[in-house]
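User: I'm curious whether this sequence folds into something compact or stays loose and floppy. Could you predict its structure so I can see for myself?
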Amino acid sequence: MGKRNIARTTPFRFVSYVTAAVIAAIMSLNLIPNPAFGLIALGVWVIFPIGLDYIAIKSKWTHELINGKETILVKHGKIMEDNLLQARLTGEELLRELRYKNTFNLADVEFAVMEDTGDINLFLKSDKKPVSPHDLGIKTAPQAEPQTVILDGNILDEPLSSLGVNREWLNIQLETTGVSPDNVFIGQVDSSGDLYLDLFDDSVQLPQPKVKELLYANFEKIQSDLMTFALETKNEAAKKMYSKHAETLDQLMKKLKPYLLR
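Assistant: Here's the prediction. I'll summarize afterward.
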């Protein structure tokens, strides 16, 4: 089976799994007089599908033969009735599958296809798709997967090393929140350095991490201080210097704002 999801397997693989399981069950009950015959049959139903899988990787024709091919159900917003009949789906079943995809209006669907596993995937019309930051021209910070640094009260050193931090940094973060590692069920650190904690004691309320917001607030304070110094000083050279640095910092803050403020 590998790492395939049994709920999304193709009919050919499903039959292969069931047949191999039945043969193994019959052998375990000693219902086959000669165990060698059972081993041969089991070997065929195990090795043969694996061999076909490898052949299917190289041959599109073999892949379509044993797994089938996708079936287009909706094209350019129109239901393909012949393909629907080929897939043995009724109109009500198609609407039900669309509802599974959180699409209740058929008019929103531009394209729909049934995969060889039986799953139906949709492509919505351009004016019905959710708006993304890219569509709005908004820059967002790249994000990596969070690392679990505490699990069942145990500190994990390998995720800490991949983040470029150590136990001392983690202990400082825990001391800031007033939490002991023994009381932490799961602790995760995201790409921005925010530490999320889930405690065994659910009655304890923890402050939400705001590393980016605090950093941006510090930039604002520094920029405000520079403007204040420029207004208060009577030295023209110092006034120009403070004003120049305040303007530079203001431009920097505009570039960092999409990344630091969520």
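Summary: The first helix runs from residue 11 to 28. The mean pLDDT is 84.
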